[in-house]
Amino acid sequence: MIRLLNKIPLLYKYLISYLILLLIPLLVIGLSVYHHYVVILKDEVTSNHQRMLEQIQGSFDLKIKEMNTIAAEIASKPELTPFQLQQDMYNAVKAKNLLTYYKSNDFIRDVLIYINGQPYLYSGTSTYTPSMLIDNIYRYESWTSQQFTEDLLELRAPRFRPSEKVESSQLTDKRVLTYLVPLPVNGTITYGSVLFIIEEQKVRNMLKGLLEYKEGNTMVFDRQGQLIVSLHDEPYFAGVDISPMVASLPLGTSTTQLNDHDYAFSKVKSSYNGWTYVTILPTDQFMQRINEIQTRALFGLIWVIVIGSVLIFVLLHVNYYPVRRFLLFTGKQWGGSFRNFNDVTQAIHQIAEEKHHMGQQITNHRSAVREQMLLTLIKGRVNHVEEFRSKAEMVEICFTKPMFFVVRFAIRDLISMERERQTELVQEIEESMIKLFEAYHVDGLEGPILNFICTADTESEQLRPNMTQLHKYIREQFDIDVTIGVGNLYLDLRELGKSFIEASTALDFRLIKGFNEVIFYSDITEHTNSEFRYPRQEIETMETLIRQGDTDTVKAMVRQILSIIETGSMPLHMVRCVCYDMINCILKAMYRLNGRLEADGKTYPDVIGLTKFDTIQDLALLIEHMCEDLCADILGSQSDSRNRGLKQAMQDYIQSNYHDSQFSVQAMADHFTISASYLKKSYKELTGQTITDEVNHCRMEQAKHLLRSTDMVLKDLIQQIGYFDVPSFIRKFKQSVKVTPGEYRKLWGNRTDIDVE
Questions:
Q1: Matching CATH topology for 62-204 and 211-286?
Q2: What is the tens place of the pLDDT at every residue in 619-653?
Q3: CB burial class (10 A; 0-12, 13-18, 19+) of residue 90?
Q4: Predicted pLDDT at 407
């Protein structure tokens, strides 16, 4: 045996050994993983199917809960009580308007309410008698009007009628489910019922997504085991009563045999109403995906073995000869049988190339290391200064000046800028900072803010003018709003984290100072003190002025509060409190105006929108704009109310005084304490006609009334309506009525001619 192995060429020995190394682990690991994976996949398919069935059960339970909630809501409405419904048909119309639940719930086709002992059913579309509903509107195949009435009177608990055929022009489906709920819900004594008409297709749509195969079915059974609805019209198993078998099945997924075929059953039971939900699927289809994956996995394993064997043979054959040549060369150098030096030099050259490639990778990663070290420095996480300096020099970070500090730039609308302009701006700021200081730009921090680590000499008198000059240059060059926050200077490199926090605090102080400022942290500590006045009275006055609709005074008060903040040395957190108090005034005024945060079709900003401001000046402008709209709404509502009252008062005055021959516009204006011209203009705007036209109309109407109903002579008649000249009255009467007063009286059959004496 050993002699036989020694006669095998070295190439084939390696080939056999590599094949063994390939096959043994691959078969052992592959088959074990394959078996484990198939088991997991079976469990996953089963659990997924079960979860989907549970989701359908939950959805169906939710629909039933919604209908029970609607029934309880109907029972709680005073307009739908038996007393109100039996009063008159007006209440029936009101009930119709309250039963339109189907409009907001697409699961329900119709909702009807029946009061025991009353002759009608009420729905959101009409009012029916039981016989009209069952015989004409919803013609049930197996539910007569007499049985319908008896079922409603005997109803004591919610009940579902199984899916059944119904002929109706109001339905898009010819099969419906009917859900009956007694009123009141869960009451011991009932006075009526609520009927929910549900098209079977709505329920089928809920059941359809669970099964991908036509041979399967999904069924719903009630607490008594009665089939309520199924996915398919025809029974799934012909001639088999499946209800007892379903009742005997355990919850979960199981298999059983029917008609000499194996089937997979998934079953869940609702804890809400005790209903059972079941899916039925042939076992071979239920496990089809698993069988497909098993087959693919086996074929895949075979292909891996075949391809692996071929590759091993090819690669071994290709690589064997270079190894042999290398061994010949090495053997020759060391007294062996190796023959060629070229392969060894190529191997050495390859090693040199790999070393060079590694050096390039280190160079490429230097910028990332540099940024990481700057982040570590600005966050104050440096513990050993000298060790950090030595590592920093390797990535070209070198500090030659003794004082360290942090500068932060906040640029308005930086993110919304065009990419090219944004890049140009950042580069310009970075170059300017490097010219003025020994500065390093730090990326990687949150927010659209530029951060710089800077160093300076011990004497820092030029720091403030340099920053001011830089700020002015950036604003003029790019026409932008920018705020600069500057932290304190420190001798210790490890204190840069503290300077970063100070620069951030200074930047936040733009809330008070506004944009376009250079803010030093040292100025903040001098500005803020513990003794300040909170403008509570001014805020309360602002709220009162908003209610009065006084826009100009509100603006003045906002500016006064702004002045208190700017000059009162108020801490930053208290400034934010003042801002939110001012916002609260606006929100309360808007809600009082219309009961919600909108008016006249305009939706005002919500609280989050109101709080998106960078400075108190921004907030003041926002509040002023909102106050203009709000005050206009307030004044508009007040003006409408006042105009309606004024119009009615003017019309009442004319009705009371038109018969006075001394009636005049001036006397009417004196009565209302306004000018005659303003009175004429106001009356014209409010009524669309002049005062004179209205007075003449009233007089002519009264004259026609007296001509029709009395024998009064014309001379006395015109005195009662405010005229004193008979010819003038006759002329105006004919212009208005197209006939003379005498002709008018004759037309109305009065026996006495007009005496013009």
A1: yes
A2: 677 776 677 666 666 555 555 555 666 778 888 88
A3: exposed
A4: 93
Average pLDDT over residues 597-616: 51
d(CA 247, CA 96): 42
- Residue 746 DSSP class: H
CA distance 440 to 429: 11
Could you name the CATH architecture of 366-527? 2-Layer Sandwich (3.30)
Lowest mean pLDDT among 8-12, 449-453, 675-679: 8-12
Please answer whether residues 339 and 328 qualify as being in contact, where contact means their C-beta atoms are separated by less than 8 angstroms. yes
Tokens of 457: 């000499």
Q: Is the pLDDT of residue 329 over 80?
A: no
- Cα separation, 256 vs 248, in Å, equals 11
**CATH fold of 62-204:** Beta-Lactamase (3.30.450)
pTM for this model (two decimals): 0.40
Give the confidence band of 289 by pLDDT, cuts at 50, 70, 90. Answer: low
d(CA 170, CA 97): 18
**257 burial class (0-12, 13-18, 19+ CB within 10 angstroms)?**
exposed
Residue 270 host element (H or E):
none
Q: Give residue 722's pLDDT.
A: 86
Sign (positive or negative) of CA dihedral 100, 101, 104, 105 = negative
CB 721 within 8 A of CB 702: yes
Give the whole-angstrom CA distance, residue 521 versus residue 261.
84
Structural tokens at position 488: 């304190």
Q: Distance between terminal CA atoms of the chain?
A: 162
Widest distance between CA atoms in the chain: 164
Task: Quickly state the pLDDT bin for 178 (edges 50, 70, 90).
Answer: very high
Check residue 347 and give its pLDDT.
Answer: 46
DSSP reduced 3-state for 676: helix
The answer to whether domain 211-286 has CATH 3.40.50.150 is no
Considering only CA atoms, which of 567, 499, 498 is closest in space to residue 528?
567
What are the residue ranges of helices labelled H in 81-178?
A: 82-85, 89-98, 130-132, 145-154
Judged by phi (left if over 0) then psi (alpha if -120 to 50, else beta), residue 643 lies in: alpha
CATH code of 658-747, in short, is 1.10.10.60
Of the candidates 324, 319, 349, the one whose C-alpha atom is nearest the C-alpha of residue 338 is 324
Report the chain's mean pLDDT, rounded to a whole number: 78
For residues 653 and 548, the answer to whether their CB atoms sit within 8 Å is: no
Place of tokens 């908003």: 546
Q: List the one residue out of 197, 112, 190 whose CA is nearest residue 153.
A: 190
Radius of gyration of the chain (CA): 47
Domain regions of the chain by residue span: 2-44, 62-204, 211-286, 290-361, 366-527, 536-638, 658-747
